[in-house]
Design brief:
120 residues, mainly alpha, globular
Length: 120
C-alpha cells in the first residue's frame, strides 16, 4: 500500500509516460476508498453529501468546502492517471474528456482502462 502512495506522489504531476493496467486499478481503489471516506465524513458532519453540496451552496460550511476541494483534487488525480493509461494504449490524451459526457463517458473510459496496454 505504501508503494502505491509513493507511485502516486512521484507521478501526480507527470502527464507523460505510462501507467500499467494493474497500477491504474490500484490507484483507482485508493481513490475510491478516500472518496468514500470523504463522503461519509461529509454526511456525518453536515448531513449533506458532497454531490448535493455542489447544487445547494446555501448549506456550505468551511468543512464542506474543504471536503469538496479534496474530492475535486482526487478526481483530477484520477484524470492524470487516466491520461497516462491512455498513453499506454497509444490513444490521444484528449479522449479523457469523454468523462464529461454523463453516464456514457465514464462507461467508455472504464472499458478503455480495462484494455491491455501496447507498450509492454
Amino acid at each position: 500500500m505504501i508503494s502505491i502512495f509513493n507511485y502516486i506522489i512521484s507521478n501526480i504531476t507527470k502527464w507523460k509516460g505510462t501507467t500499467s493496467r494493474a497500477k491504474y486499478w490500484q490507484i483507482f481503489l485508493v481513490a475510491f476508498v478516500i472518496g468514500f471516506t470523504l463522503e461519509v465524513i461529509s454526511r456525518l458532519t453536515t448531513g449533506i453529501s458532497l454531490i448535493q453540496q455542489s447544487f445547494y451552496f446555501k448549506y456550505t460550511s468551511l468543512l464542506h468546502l474543504i471536503l469538496f476541494s479534496l474530492f475535486t483534487l482526487l478526481n483530477l488525480m484520477l484524470w492524470v492517471f487516466q491520461i497516462r493509461r491512455l498513453n499506454d494504449l497509444k490513444l490521444s490524451r484528449w479522449i479523457v474528456l469523454i468523462n464529461l459526457i454523463p453516464i456514457v463517458g465514464p462507461t467508455i473510459m472504464t472499458l478503455l482502462m480495462l484494455k491491455k496496454g501496447k507498450s509492454n
